[in-house]
Amino acid sequence: MSVLKEWIFTTDHKKVGLLYLIGSMAAFAFAGFSALMMRAELSSIGPTITNNPGDYNVWLYFHGAAMILGFQIPALTGFLANYLVPLQIGAKDVAFPRINALSVWLFYMGLILALLTFVVPDPPDVMWTGYPPYSTITFANTALYTFTVLLLGFASILGGVNFLTTIAFMRAPGIGWNQLNMFTWCTFAAFILQLIFVPVLGTAVTLISLDKYLGTHFFDPSSGGDVLVYQNLFWFYSHPAVYVILLPFIGIVFDIVATFARNRIFNYKAAVYGGVGGILLLAGEVWIHHLYVTGMPDWIRVGQMVTTLLISIPVGLLFISLVGTLYKGSISFETPMLYALSVVFLMLIGGLTGIPLAIVSLTLHVSDTYYIPGHFHYVMAVAGTFAIFGGVYYLFPKFTGKMYNEFVGKLAFWITFVGVNVIFFPMMIVGVTEGMPRRYWDYAQFPGAEPYQYWMTVGAAIIGVGFLLVLFNWIHALFAGPKAGNNPWGSRSLEWTTTSPPLDHGNWEEVPKIEEGWGPYEYGTEKT
Amino acid sequence: MSWVNSARHALRFVIAGAAVFAGPAAAVSDGNINSTIDPSVVAIDEPEYLGTPIARDFVLVDENGREFTLGEAMGKPLILLFSYYTCDGVCETLNKHLADRLAEMEAASPGRDYRALTISFDRNDDPASLRHFVSMLDIPEHLKERWTVSVLRNGDDIKRLTDSVGVRYFWSYRDKVFVHPNAFIFVTPKGRIARYLHGAAFDARDMEMALIDADWEKISSARRVIDILAAACFSYNFKEGRYTFNYPLVIGVTSLLAGIFVVAIAFMVARKKKMRSVKHAQQQIA
Amino acid sequence: MRNNRLHRAFTALPFVALPGGASAEFESIVEKVEDPAAGFDHLWFEVMVDITIIGVIFALLALYFLFRYRRRSPGEEGTQKPLSNLNIIGWALIPAFVFMADDFYMAAKGWQLYDTYRRVPENSLEVKLESAMWTWDYTYPNGVKTYNELRVPAGQPVVLRMTSRDTIHSHFIPDFRIKEDSMPGRVTYMWFYPQKPGEHIVSCAEYCGQLHSRMYGKVIVMPRGEFDSWYQAEAAKLDVKLTKLSDNRGAGQK
Q1: Does A140 map to a domain?
Q2: From CA A84, how far away is CA A399, in angstroms rounded?
Q3: A419-452 pLDDT, tens per residue?
Q4: Which residue, A264, A475, C81, C127, is the most exposed by fewest CB within 10 angstroms?
């Protein structure tokens, strides 16, 4: 009982981080389960496991909302940021530990609201985008959607205030901005985005509920409202939200790759100031590419086509640094490294297939087809999830003090890696060639899509098996894993200088002294 | 679902009400309930006609006898008003309303490019009645270059033109007047219907917004940027027949500013924290 | 056989060897009107080649590094040296400009095609579309109405002027590579160029509730003559109804 109390009321950033991990993994499990249900339904034409399209729409809503708001953002900016950032900058805790605790509480409340989807009588079926007028005229429970978003958004805002101050002001003496880990930099940028843009999303979803339940006319064109304003507000946040996911996960991939290649980051400054900074600058100027087919004026579509294409520059710089880090390295292939490297390849496919989507004339055909989920699952969903899993494997010895089973880890990785390609590559093909639109419960009008759909379902089953193996590996290692050392990977980064697991409050007995010329990636030099 | 439908019905109803707001009020005078005119007969079905093109080949004649085609009047946002010139008040009121609003608009934002055109739907109107009507209107000189009062050269064209813009009207034998919608039609430079404004209820700003609405696809000058911003801040309210504040956008922008403010706060407030942690570290080193 | 060209363009890409052929089959009929769908296929293929080249370069490089620099002894560390300032700037600016050049090239191409997509040819047939849960209602210029079935003549561009009764829908014709949303309170448009008689699926591409996936119809492209006789026959039926209506209404002029 006291253990439970200790965890609930903890203000230690590591415990808060682990709470985030547990919650987000629960969201991942439920959202993954609803994905399996959808894939089962789609495996053949006609009703397969349910003859009520409403069921399918609810699974789809939950899958999207829970994966993005309940799993990826909390796992990256909640778990990884909480656990790693103070350790990487040599701080004893975050700047506002109690606010941190409050944010994890809000996160759990949001999570509970999200899970109520499976309990309430008219579960929301508005998709994670919640576009009006549908969301204001549906019989379903739009309020549940609104409040889930609001709670998780508030959790994020609190986290943002906390981490910006922590990174800006609580670095151990001697750590300059150019000696920060890539992950810390990326978290910093991600939280700036989160803080600026979350309020806009909060506004948008609140207005929908006001429209639906209090009879206002914000999005009702017959009374001076405008249906497109919602989409603008929504994507004004939700495109940057993609970078809120992308930045931390590419940050953790940088850290993993540098550690396992035991090499310095290639052109660190270009990656930070060009890559991360460039994304920060462009993130808010590209949202119209989600509205290419909604009848926005032509000039704004063409204008944002250019800004969207320019995103390739910062992302390209990050990529060059990432691949360059392998150059003259000493690369070993443990499980975290496999995940990190797979992210490089998934991002390559996902990022490049995003280029046609930036071009407005090509989007007129592929928008809202299966090509879109194919693309964003590669670049954000799967790449992000693999980075998270890589990150958990990477930190596993640190936060448990135990070592997982390397063979099972690698086996599970290869199974899931095959699975995701079996599902998401055909998804892109069927979107372009058949023109199969997304969010379909049935597809009688597209008989040509059936074989693809069948194989995608097979892929989903493979992924399911892979993730179960991962889970088994972690739980088994937690109880029966061999003891891991303080620095099993031979990393130079600050988080590995403490014991495994680190001290409860304060992380170190004494914060390590930062020598002149120290850096988290100074490999190949004398160890100090 | 019912919600949008009812809003839509309300919309149609209100439009119908507005259509008859000024016009046939005089027509229903003898108290004979059986012969009261149903205003919805001349209501414009806006969703049906918004966006439809108007043919350019109609030949019109102005008060000086000069002939021009409707297409020649296009190329700029165009305000169309259908009247008849032997009308005993309403048409004159509407045209005067147009003149006043145009004068106000020109005073408030000089140099806005537009054309206005009054066309008679009465085939008995001829250059003589037209001239009489114009003299009664007493259009200010500076408006004359942009605003023309005209009749169709060929009376058979009338029905074709009014049908294509959704304007229906009929002669009330009892009241000796035309029953017709009092709608100002805003046409895009390419000749498509962009907006209807009804009655004499709107002000100069509404009219300017409707003109912007009729032509905001292309950015041709710096002024257009301001126009676009204005158009984004206001949206047309079918129920009230005028432009109202685009609240969600304003609220959204406010919340964005709030977000930026929070980022700033995060740094400012934390300066204290920094001082504390620096001191703490110094103590440790010492 | 639908979308055969596109299918090949996509799946054959990993083996870049796809010949530029397969493009002559439709072009004989094309007159002055530029067909955006053909432009789409062309640009799509070009972009696919572009991204495949970039992808293959990065992937091969990464794979080579992974093999070449694998760890050979447990204590080994990487030997990359810090970059000089000149190198830092060079490795940032040169790739940035290469990417930017590619971006602008594609943006220009994309804009050109977009222009074709949005500039409606003069001689197009204009049909009104009102969408609703879950139906497409078409109205032809002469007042003929059809539901979930758009009949058009081969060889004439068709422009749809769209609005919606309830929620947002998206009129998507995969075979013509075009979609555009329709929504209440706004009028949107799209056009396409049917060239050969045949049937094409039109399906809703914007989530619009329970039966979103069942909201589909057909675009039936008919030979010119056949279309004209159908069109006139429908109009004749309509005229009968209309005269009846106007009798009741008793509209007249003095």
Answers
A1: yes
A2: 10
A3: 999 999 999 999 999 899 999 999 999 999 999 9
A4: C81
- Residue A69: inside a domain, yes or no? yes
Q: Does the beta-carbon distance from B4 to C166 stay under 8 Å?
A: yes
Candidates A341, A368, A523; nearest CB to C78: A523
| Range(s) of the domain holding residue A183 | 2-497
Residue C227 pLDDT: 92
Residue C22, pLDDT > 50, answer no
Chain A contact set for C91 (CB, 8 A): 266-267, 270, 320, 324
pLDDT reading at B11 higher than 50 = no
CA torsion angle A286 A291 A296 A297 (round to 10): 40
Minimal CA separation from A241 to chain B, in Å = 14
**SS3 at position A176:** coil
> Is the pLDDT assigned to residue A329 strictly greater than 60?
yes
Q: Per the domain annotation, does A527 fall within a domain?
A: no
> Between helices A335-353 and A312-324, what is the axis angle to 10°?
150
Question: Considering only alpha carbons, which residue of chain B is nearest residue A93?
Answer: B277
* Chain B closest-CA separation from residue A139 CA (Å): 8
Q: Which of C126, C128, C252 sits opposite B171 (nearest CB)?
A: C252
Domains and CATH numbers, chain C: 4-71+85-118 (no CATH), 125-245 (2.60.40.420)
d(CA C61, CA C55): 10
Best A293, A332, A353 residue to mutate vs chain C (most C CBs within 10 Å): A293
Count structural domains, chain A.
1
Please enumerate, as own/partner, the contacts of A122-126 that have beta carbons within 8 Å and a separation of 24 or more.
A123/A58, A123/A61, A123/A62, A124/A58, A124/A61, A125/A54, A125/A57, A125/A58, A125/A60, A125/A61, A125/C209, A125/C210, A126/A61
pLDDT for the residue numbered B276? 60
Tokens representing A268 are 């660190």
Between positions 463 and 482 of A, the ones with CB within 8 A of B are: none
Q: pLDDT tens digit string along B234-258? A: 888 777 778 888 888 888 888 888 8
CB-defined contacts B:C, below 8 A: 35
Q: How many angstroms separate the CA of residue A249 from the nearest CA in chain B?
A: 22
CA angle at residue A496 from A490 to A499, to 5 degrees? 120
pLDDT band at residue B39 using 50, 70 and 90 as cut-offs: low
Listed in sequence order, the DSSP H helices in A170-297 are: 182-214, 227-261, 268-269, 277-282
Is residue A295 situated within a structural domain?
yes
**Any B CB within 8 A of A99 CB:** no
How do B170-172 and B177-179 pair as beta strands? antiparallel
B196–A contact, CB cutoff 8 A? no
* Domain of residue A293, CATH code: 1.20.210.10
Beta bridge partners of C159: C126, C191
Q: What is the C-alpha R_g of chain B?
A: 26
| B81 pLDDT above the threshold of 70 | yes
Confidence band (pLDDT; 50, 70, 90) for B8?
very low
Number of cross-chain residue pairs from A and C with Cβ atoms under 8 Å apart: 280
| DSSP classification of residue C62 | H
C114 at the B interface (CB within 8 A)?
no
Q: Is A204 on the interface with B (CB under 8 A)?
A: yes
Pairwise CB contact (< 8 Å): C252 & B53: no
Contact between chains at C130 and B47 (C-beta distance less than 8 A): yes
The reported pLDDT for the residue numbered B213 is: 81
A138-149 average pLDDT score: 90
Q: Which residue on chain A is closest to C211 by alpha carbon?
A: A53
CA–CA gap between residue A500 and residue A400 (Å, rounded): 7
Please, what is the Cα angle at C181 between C215 and A443, to 5 degrees?
Answer: 30
Q: What is the mean pLDDT of chain A?
A: 91
DSSP B200: T
